[in-house]
Automatic annotation (TrEMBL):
Species of the source: Trichodelitschia bisporula
Coiled-coil regions listed: none
Identification of the protein by name: Pentacotripeptide-repeat region of PRORP domain-containing protein
Pfam families hit by this protein: PPR_2 (PF13041)
PPR repeat feature ranges: 145-179, 387-421, 422-456
Amino acid sequence: MATDILEHLVLHFLIGSERDALGHLYSAIIHFLENGLKIRSVPIALVADRSDPEKARQLYQIIQEKNISLAPVALKAIAHRVAITGDFDLALKIIEKVALLTGYTWKRGDGLAAKILRYSLKHPEGYHASTDILARLVDMGIKITITAYNALIGNAVDVGDFPTAFRVFEFLQEHGIEPDSVTYNVMLTACESCEEQSVVEDMLTKARACIERDRSDRLATNFLHCSLLYHQRFFSASQSSAKWIYARVLRQYLTYFPPYPLFDLGLLDKNDLPSDIVSIIDNGMKLDVDFQPVNIVLMAFLRANTDSDRLVQVYNAFQRNARSGGWLINLCAYDTTYNLFLMAFGFDSKAVGLCPEIVRHMTEPYPTDRIPEKRPRGTSEIFARPTVQTWSILLHVFAWQGHTAAANKVMDLMEQRGTQPDDVTWNILIKGYATANDEEGILEALDNMRKSGFAYDKFTMKAVGRMNNKEALFRVLKETAVSTE
């Protein structure tokens, strides 16, 4: 009777339950199993699939100790949760039991195989065990599909093993396995570190065809970003090239996304559009757009722009629209847009004085009931606040201009606002003092950096090396060597 009631609760009330309720159900299942009571596999699968991975491991340990037989549905759920911890060996042992129970005939086994491969990266030896994991999965009768290959490529990119990522992609091509939008998303990330122009061009061409086939807004976004980096890396850095790159990125954006965010920013005038732009808009895919593709176009524009008044005009359009609850409020959940403007203002001799204004805008409430459609995970903040990257950019602006006192005040202000400097922030400050040949300031900054728990790195030494006063430089290096012993 008790087990029937428990199974009824799991089957009818688990979906959408609070975490505390799930914990109680899990504890009850453990208690019943430890005391020899039988519970059917489906309730166990439902609870296991929603439990903490470590609890799933504990559940399997009890099942082993009590020699309890479970149906494949429960074993798969436990294997999935165990795999999340990175324990690929235990996850494989569990699904070996599934293979025996099913006579090595699988339904949707590729999805579980991909998860085991992907999560194996959490294990210290997981990446190097990828070939062995794949072989064991094949031995179990699991058909390896593009989903699992995507996990292999993703793991290679995550650890920086880009040659392996490209080799797996070539394997897919050679064996007639069709890459999907996930494949190209990962491969475009790999292309950001590729120095072979022809390889990047070929990948962009293939990704473009995949966008047209799958209409993936995420892939279109990554395509825009990779295309921007590609043109910046392989073409001249002159201002004329920056304007050409912006024009190209603009057209690529309009091929995939709707134009209204660019109208709101003032990057396009809807009443005065060139005929080719009108044609692109009319024939564009108009995929779902969020802040990311808009920021990519904005980045290209800011690099190409040389008109201070135009820079201020676009920023003001952004603020007016966002603060009135327009679509551009979607650019305000993350610090990216503000940081882009801050960098552009900071290196514009006429607009640099407005940099503190941008940071102030990030601390002001938005007088609107509308909130951004996408927000960062792990924070209760609805709108972006100045981050360590924001403060570092502002500090860099002042240090670059030789205003070390102002840069130091930025350090104090960011700490007052609850943001701790990172190693990049300290190195920027040290670089500013070194450029100004301020021996006392640089020694104090180095000491404070060390006291804050950051070790001197190659960027610190490079920053120190900017001192023109060689005698002072020698004294600083000597002091630095002593303090690191």
